[in-house]
Records
---
Amino acid sequence: MDEFSLIEAIKQKQKTYKQSSLQRGIGDDTAVFREAAGELAIAVDTFVEGVHFTEKTTDLFRLGYRALAANFSDLAAMGALPMYYLVSIVVPHRMKESKLSEIFNGMKHLADRYNADLIGGDTVSGNELVLSVTVIGQIEQGKARYRNLAEVDDIVFVTGTLGDSQAGLYILQHDLESVHRQYFINRHQLPVPRIAFASSLGSIKRLALNDISDGLGNEAYEIAEASHVSIILDDKKIPVHPGLAAFPMGLQEKWKYFGGEDFELVGTVAKKDWQTVQQAAEKLNLQVTEIGHVINKDEHAVYLKKNGNMTKLQKEGYTHLK
Amino acid sequence: MDEFSLIEAIKQKQKTYKQSSLQRGIGDDTAVFREAAGELAIAVDTFVEGVHFTEKTTDLFRLGYRALAANFSDLAAMGALPMYYLVSIVVPHRMKESKLSEIFNGMKHLADRYNADLIGGDTVSGNELVLSVTVIGQIEQGKARYRNLAEVDDIVFVTGTLGDSQAGLYILQHDLESVHRQYFINRHQLPVPRIAFASSLGSIKRLALNDISDGLGNEAYEIAEASHVSIILDDKKIPVHPGLAAFPMGLQEKWKYFGGEDFELVGTVAKKDWQTVQQAAEKLNLQVTEIGHVINKDEHAVYLKKNGNMTKLQKEGYTHLK
């Protein structure tokens, strides 16, 4: 399959566009879409073979799915609904181009749930597989969930359970058997971006949100620093899957606070709105847990309450340029 | 310089945003901008070391400049004005991260001319340098310059001269001396996207435009196929720089029709609007040349009139996924 056939294979006919604002998708110098009311969110994320994934940890379908999920997770953390995505791929010379369609199929599988259209991209050859995804979403006017919106006395919460993705990666890398093997692997390979949850919180006026791509510790720090507040997390409240207990304690701790890539959301909200958050999660059958609160402290740091002690959480892990 | 310092170094303070619609640039999960009247154009292009450039053919400043220029050229071809750009870079392990700022400086040099803001990106490590740029521009409502808008009897025109970029690349690759050495090198390394020209044609209702990234032949074919017409090009009218005559005839021909990366524009326009096009170019001190016309022929092909003969132009060169 040459590149021209690939374009023909993946490009949507105009009448199949899902977004009514789309004027022109793939097939011209740029995509064109009409502007609607509200605000637009845009983000890009890049994934490199050997750094973010290997043949051992994913197939190409799940690679595509997960790359788009990571980007949709950024949209969720801004309170945005996905509309469009663009994909750049550096294709290794050794790789059959026909394999590329599996990556696109994985992305489409996720995109279709949100009626998001693929509207452009670029494929070029190189030595290693690089996947770069740009996403565009729409936000209700004034409802962007910036990370600098946390206020003193807010409740700090997270969705889902933390550390699952790293457990799944560990299982794949070490060929481990485990009762919860498939659960953890799915959490690593097929994460669900919390779009539905974030977009169901529209009635709440002020909300700070971050998606947990780099670990709870880093994301909480980003909120604390941007909002000029400090955050106290209660170790015994951090939600984890029961199966995590089967791993060495050191790994459990690491994955919980610094693992990342669960693509859950951490947020802060006024106490008066906490019930609304809980009800929204319940409707979606999604776990949401109060894990701490926001305090006024000059350091703009994250503190961990554990066994009666209070320690400052260290920042760790890789920081993406966002 | 770690990645965090790099972000701090390149991110703009809110009060320095050039685009008034920008709500939030770098520094949160996504960038956020308010929608305005009109339509938005978006495109992405990716550049790989060893494929699109080498240390011999560019320094990092010019690499950044050229990557953004190639993207802005896509916006020009859609009649769009640049507003925003996002940058993903795969940084080779051997490369000092401080070098990265040169790439960003090169982009900023061009972006500042159009008041375009850098609003996001991603840097990750890998084995080879990969630069992926996403651009967003604004189009006056109903004035998108789609390539399917050519009509029978239209005049076909190009801006500037063709083949210069390939001549510059050849000079760099072969360490050639030439009277016009610096001219050709500049045309390769520092191309000027034809934004000002394209945006000054707003009074023309219908206009088909393509930027010449893959050679005149390919771009003319794209217009012919999308518009269901055929195009006749007159060989003796194709504008070239006088210095091109110093190169072997075979190379001249190749560069003129299939060289590409001059980032000039090829377009078709009704005869009644041709004078408007010429006047717009004259105001910008830009060369614009009538090189052929659009005919009604079932094949949807591009024909070359040369020495009294008419031959079908062969498609050649690499087709990007757009």
---
Amino acid sequence: MPGTRARRSDAEVVAAVRAAVVEELAEVGLGRLTMDGIGQRAGIAKTSLYRRWDSPQAILLDALQAGFPQEQPTPAPTDDLRSDLIEALRLMIAWLTTPVARATGAILAERARYPELAEAVYTQVFEPKGGRFTGTVLRHYAAAGRIDPDRLTPVVLDIGEALVLKYTLDSGELPDEQTLADIVDQAVLPAADRPH
Amino acid sequence: MPGTRARRSDAEVVAAVRAAVVEELAEVGLGRLTMDGIGQRAGIAKTSLYRRWDSPQAILLDALQAGFPQEQPTPAPTDDLRSDLIEALRLMIAWLTTPVARATGAILAERARYPELAEAVYTQVFEPKGGRFTGTVLRHYAAAGRIDPDRLTPVVLDIGEALVLKYTLDSGELPDEQTLADIVDQAVLPAADRPH
């Protein structure tokens, strides 16, 4: 009954809908995501949902975008490339433990069936936040003249993320601090920062 | 009826059983793999299966082991580290297109439910063949004094494989020749072979 509970703010409604779409995805799968299901789980009328989003997939992308972290290079003058790279990988690991990351993984695993949605994860979620963890940091130090911008190829921008993912797939666990430092010292820095 | 078809050699029987277990896995999933199902698909009595293997999982591991390639460093005196690394990644890509690789991926994706089987993939399939594509090659050149063995950490041995996997996950396609060369030139060699 309307009025039986306190009216939620816009921000609360949006947060509830974003949480609902991620839970709904985990429960019913991509193929059965509906405005009805999401609305019911969030306690919101379908007509209200349509005021802001035009499809279940739009809600899902909005939730993934909102839940994806933004890495920040340390502001000068405390510049520290190595620490900033390790911190960027820490951010990735923190994200990997969230329901939003599992939802992202579920979409990419079904890329063959939903190619446009998978593509949208890259263009609307990953790329606006820098494309790759370590990417924002590396480009910042290249712009500052600290590393050679020519070294920042797609392969080099991908090294940190690739090794974290591979470690996670192989071990079933997230890399610890020492492994993050090893990835930065033994793979990212030699490729991005070796003498030239 | 016995005798209605030509008797197969031992090697033919083994090949048929290995192919059958991979097809059966793709069709019914890990949880419903049985000696009956495999025997039926291979056209072999269950009692004959038990003569060689003691479980469906043993058959599966045998098939994955038989289908996993073995990388080879070029024999001296045509030593060429860069070419051998690229060739090792080509082997990985050729393997990734096989039904055996998809079966391996299916097991690792269900690691949480079948931890012992996933562990056995590493100890019985990957490790006997060198643990990582590029690993055999890198260790060969370290033993020959061409690169510093101290550089061959777990992270460095994983760089090539991690970047191939990441590229494949991101693009839904296998890396082409240029990408393999970039991975070797921009990531593996700087980490394994930079001046010291």
